[in-house]
Design brief:
Layout: H1 13-27, H2 36-69, E1 84-87, E2 93-97, E3 101-102, H3 112-122, H4 134-145, H5 156-165, H6 172-188, H7 191-201, E4 203-205, E5 208-209, H8 211-219, H9 228-237, H10 250-266, H11 272-277, H12 298-311, H13 316-321, E6 325-328, H14 332-345, E7 354-360, E8 367-371, H15 393-407, E9 416-419, E10 423-425, E11 428-430, E12 438-442, H16 443-449, H17 452-462, H18 464-474, E13 479-480, E14 483-484, H19 505-516, E15 520-521, E16 527-531, E17 537-540, E18 546-547, H20 551-561, H21 564-567, E19 579-586, E20 593-601, E21 606-612, H22 632-645
Parallel strand pairs: 1-6, 3-5
Antiparallel strand pairs: 1-2, 4-5, 6-16, 7-8, 7-21, 9-12, 10-11, 13-14, 15-18, 16-17, 19-20, 20-21
């Protein structure tokens, strides 16, 4: 038999090709118009096309049904009749919010400048758009597919629809309904009519719904008398009334106000020259009213809750009408104890004294008690930026011990320094309170006795910037109104070691809570849980603790602070252990102080108490004596802590140190104590440069009087170095 090349039987070629064809069909590698794989691809495409067409028809059909069945709500038919309840941590009621203040006005009575300001803030393309934002709908669909919130830009028409009768849920379904109804609204009514309805129903904050109520609430005048500058203030608040309130958040409000004016210029509704001439107008003080009225110290808690809800995406308008239930972190018993401690301690004292108390659970960051003042409607003193004096010294020690732990500097709480007074550091003269002397002073002694010269020296040695970084990690905000804290004009001076730079009472409570939690920082929070009217959970707080300093460092700083309360005659009842630090800020070159602090903790609670006045001035007790941290602030702290901790078993604090080290080398920058203290120069207000030759700058004005915005208050008299006790 003849064989071809490669040994293949040429007589069997036909059979061979048939075998290969069968193999190709089985493996899908064949060619030709009748090939099954291509038919399968075409079949799949047809199925997908039919499915897509089917779903498109469903969407179009649903949109058609929704369009036909929808009735447009008129402003008079929109009611905010579901009252929301804010509760204590145990579920007992703290406040109810939801009353409505609204007066409708025709668009003809709303000045064009007011209309344009609102359009600039919320929808600059209003007059030409079809009523919906295609970009916003696309963003909602994209986020929905990725499992994210469907936040996106909405037109004024969509906002009206949402506020009229849709829920505030962030889903594509709600966004789709909103768009369909907005299109119908835009087709059946004029742009002017829709704008009128919007202006009469949108929420502007402070309980005011509609532009007329807002004009009366913020400026004590009807809408037809509003100026362009005033209109821009109201327009700026729409985005988030709580976070853009001119009194509570002046910097946010001013920035948004400028955004509105710039938008008006861009759209040709205002000239650049006219916009530049405008100044932020005076806004009426936020006052208690019969609407949503919460009086007394709890009013400040409600304000903080509203701010936190706004940051979480629950705006005040939603709170006012959706029947939400907001469970706060505030312990009812702790709040009662805080109010009672302040009242009892300051009975018979000067009416000009102001107080703040904040208590935080170190294990969670929950704010358990919050006292920002007695009225509940004026300035919240728990948010006041004031110089902390010696109550800042624990951050300095934490910085030194952390540096020793990680770079072997040999520093420990037993390291000794020259605590003589006065001492000079690069031309800056530092004194100890009441002339205290401690020539061979360990850091343990210096903390208990509050020796300024030791902690100024320590801050210089470890680096003022390091101290600032440590404090910010532990709980002091890194920025204030967009600018870095714990510095002036980009410089952090050695005075940080004795409390030169301002902090808030709530910040101190957080910072000391970090020590109580073994170096774990947990941000302070007020909102524990939010549920809707049906009981569905809309938000639940989750612990966000982070280890920011080594547990050994937290241990030793706490150990150093344990003797302070007893040394200051403010020891807790029944010998309960605590860790604390007092602090004062000297007023000018007088024998008096302008600020006094007591901050301390047990493992269960961290509490900061501040005492001051509306303007920095000489603080005196009822007998005319200077006020120190160990006095009225210490007594308030002790009264609260004893009441809150009563019945709770004592929790232990460190009984030994963990950061080992030898005494440090001689101070890098020191000068021998002088017999006659050199004259210490006064320092300028904190808004100016802090010269390196001064001990500490004057703090910025504390809370303003009701008619004086925080950022616009006049500079108070200058002060001199803190007298820290």
């Amino acid at each position: 038999m003849h064989r071809g090349v490669g040994g293949v039987n040429t007589d069997s070629t036909g059979a061979y090709q048939r075998d290969q064809s069968r193999t190709a069909r089985q493996t899908g590698t064949g060619t030709g118009s009748g090939n099954p794989p291509r038919r399968r691809i075409r079949r799949r495409r047809r199925v997908l096309l039919w499915l897509a067409s089917f779903f498109l028809l469903l969407i179009v059909g649903a949109a058609g049904v929704l369009y036909a069945a929808t009735t447009i709500p008129l402003p008079g038919q929109i009611q905010a009749n579901q009252v929301s309840v804010i509760t204590f941590a145990d579920g007992s009621e703290m406040a109810r919010v939801g009353a409505e203040n609204r007066t409708d006005v025709p668009l003809s009575k709303v000045p064009v400048g007011v209309q344009n300001a609102v359009l600039s803030a919320e929808d600059r393309g209003y007059w030409s758009e079809p009523g919906v934002s295609v970009r916003g709908i696309g963003r909602a669909l994209y986020n929905n597919l990725r499992g994210r919130d469907t936040q996106g830009g909405s037109t004024i028409t969509q906002q009206y629809v949402k506020n009229a009768y849709l829920t505030q849920e962030r889903t594509f379904t709600r966004k789709f309904k909103e768009a369909i109804i907005a299109v119908k609204l835009n087709r059946e009514f004029s742009k002017r009519q829709i704008l009128e309805w919007y202006l009469n129903t949108i929420y502007y904050g402070r309980g005011a719904y509609g532009i007329e109520a807002a004009a009366e609430t913020y400026f004590n005048k009807p809408v037809n008398r509003l100026t362009t500058a005033e209109a821009a203030v109201l327009a700026a608040s729409i985005r988030s009334p709580a976070l853009y309130d001119p009194q509570a958040h002046p910097d946010n409000a001013h920035a948004r106000w400028r955004f509105v004016l710039d938008g008006m210029v861009k759209e040709g509704w205002l000239t650049r020259r006219a916009a530049d001439r405008l100044r932020y107008p005076k806004v009426a003080t936020k006052r208690a009213s019969t609407l949503n009225r919460v009086t007394g110290p709890n009013g400040y808690v409600v304000d903080q809750v509203k701010d936190e809800l706004a940051n979480l995406g629950f705006d005040e308008a939603l709170l006012n009408r959706e029947g939400l239930r907001v469970q706060t972190s505030v312990d009812r018993r702790a709040q009662v104890a805080a109010v009672a401690a302040v009242k009892r301690t300051f009975a018979g004292q000067s009416a000009g004294l102001r107080q703040a108390l904040v208590a935080i659970d170190p294990k969670s960051g929950a704010v358990r008690a919050y006292y920002g003042g007695a009225s509940g409607t004026g300035f919240d003193y728990a948010q006041a930026w004031r110089p902390p004096g010696s109550s800042f010294k624990p951050y300095v020690l934490a910085t030194a011990l952390d540096l020793s732990l990680h770079s072997d500097t040999g520093m420990s709480v037993y390291s000794t320094f020259d605590g003589s007074s006065p001492r000079t550091f690069q031309g800056t003269v530092v004194h100890n309170s009441e002339g205290a002397q401690c020539p061979h002073c360990s850091l343990l002694q210096a903390m208990k006795r509050s020796i300024n010269t030791v902690f100024y020296d320590l801050a210089v040695q470890v680096g003022p910037q390091r101290v600032a970084a440590t404090a910010q990690k532990m709980g002091i905000p890194a920025t204030r109104n967009g600018k870095p804290t714990l510095q002036q004009n980009g410089i952090t001076a050695g005075g940080i070691g004795i409390g030169q730079y301002e902090v808030r009472p709530i910040d101190q409570a957080v910072g000391f809570a970090t020590l109580a939690a073994g170096g774990v920082r947990r941000p302070a929070y007020f909102v524990q849980k939010v549920t809707d009217a049906a009981g569905n959970i809309l938000y639940q707080h989750r612990d966000a603790g982070q280890q920011v300093i080594d547990p050994k460092v937290a241990n030793d700083v706490t150990y150093a602070m344990e003797p302070v309360a007893g040394y200051s005659a403010d020891a807790l009842a029944d010998g309960r252990p605590s860790a604390a630090k007092t602090g004062t800020q000297q007023f000018g070159e007088t024998a008096y102080n302008s600020d006094a602090w007591m901050v301390g903790f047990t493992p269960q609670i961290s509490t900061a108490v501040w005492v001051g006045s509306d303007r920095p001035g000489a603080l005196k007790d009822a007998d005319g004596n200077p006020l120190y941290g160990r006095g009225l602030p210490g007594a308030t702290w002790k009264a609260f802590m004893d009441a809150y901790l009563a019945g709770q078993p004592p929790a232990s604090l460190p009984d030994s140190t963990q950061v080992r080290g030898a005494p440090p080398p001689p101070p890098l920058v020191t000068a021998a104590p002088t017999t006659t203290p050199p004259r210490t120069s006064r320092t300028p207000a904190p808004t100016t440069t802090a010269p390196p030759t001064t001990v500490t700058p004057t703090p910025t004005p504390t809370p303003p009087l009701p008619t004086c915005p925080v950022t616009d208050c006049p500079t108070p008299p200058p002060t001199t170095p803190p007298d820290n006790t």
